[in-house]
Specification:
Length: 317
């Protein structure tokens, strides 16, 4: 009995099939990904998300572990729940006037944000809606300011604010010694964001407001700014966060005392010196977690505005 069948050309065709190659899990996944490329995109998204969570959230987790773990000399990534001490968060306010430091930071950040948004709105209107010679080089010059390190401005500003340049002008240990440098450093980014948004508002809307008798300034704040709300919100939130987290001028333009408008940086350094003959790492970690809360709340509340403000500028016509 024959194992094969006769072909039309006289040959013999075998009925036996070659055995399939044994493939491992990764090879099978590659084969399926070739047929469905979306699997690759999903895998890349999951890998990037996992990497982001590990690199950004793990330091906060370890900071929390450091705060609630007693100072016994041993620190574990997964500590025992029975040994945790959450009273350290109350010790932060008992050792120093930490609430005043936080209030100083919020006031400085809000004041700087208001000044930056007002001046950046005027500059954004000029650069975004008016034509004049040298507009692009001037915009590049303004943006170049943001690339200068803060240390480059410290010596002349310190001499100025301590009264060594102008007699009687002493801003050291006052809010002005920090608000002025903050405004100049963080304003270029806001000008760039608002210029992009203001330049996309149709001219007809402003012309209609001008026909009704309003001035250019009135049209700016009554028509253009409300229509550019996502961009204004984005510039404001980014400025607030940058000022709240600023370290250089916050540390050097005051003596670190809360009554002299020392911000949250001064509070964290004071916690370092709060312990007698010891470095209180747990209290410092707890203070750092408490200091992040206002910014975290702001980001959660305004995240939709931030995302829309950063993306809609590229989608509008």
């Amino acid at each position: 009995m024959s194992d094969g069948s006769t072909r039309s050309d006289g040959g013999v065709q075998s009925d036996r099939h070659e055995p399939e190659l044994t493939r491992g899990p990764f090879q099978r996944w590659v084969q399926k990904s070739i047929k469905d490329p979306k699997r690759v995109y999903r895998a890349m998204f999951y890998v990037a998300t996992l990497f982001f969570l590990v690199t950004t959230l793990f330091p906060f987790y370890f900071l929390l572990v450091l705060a609630v773990t007693p100072d016994t000399g041993s620190l574990a990534v997964l500590p025992q729940l029975s040994t945790l001490e959450f009273g350290v968060f109350l010790d932060v306010f008992d050792r120093i006037n930490f609430l005043r430091y936080m209030l100083n930071s919020v006031v400085l950040a809000l004041s700087t944000t208001a000044i930056v948004l007002f001046l950046a709105s005027l500059a954004g209107y000029v650069f975004g809606r008016l034509e004049f010679p040298g507009r692009q080089p001037l915009m590049l010059l303004i943006l170049a300011i943001s690339y200068f390190p803060p240390a480059a401005f410290f010596v002349p500003l310190y001499q100025l604010f301590t009264g060594n340049v102008v007699n009687g002008l002493s801003l050291y240990n006052t809010p002005g010694a920090m608000i002025l440098p903050f405004s100049s450093l963080f304003m270029p980014l806001s000008i760039f964001i608002l210029t992009t948004f203001y330049g996309q508002i149709p001219d007809g809307l402003e012309d209609a407001a001008r026909v009704e008798g309003t001035t250019r300034l009135g049209a700016l704040f009554r028509v253009i700014v409300p229509l550019s709300a996502p961009g204004v919100a984005t510039a404001g939130v980014l400025t607030f966060i940058a000022v709240y987290n600023e370290f250089f001028f916050s540390q050097l333009m005051n003596n670190g005392q809360p009554e002299n408008w020392a911000p949250i940086v001064g509070g964290l350094l004071s916690l370092q010196r709060a312990g007698q003959f010891e470095v209180t790492y747990g209290v410092m970690a707890a203070g750092s977690i408490i200091a992040v809360i206002p910014v975290a709340i702001l980001v959660v509340v305004a995240q939709e505005k931030i995302v829309s403000g950063l993306t809609s500028g590229a989608l509008k016509e």
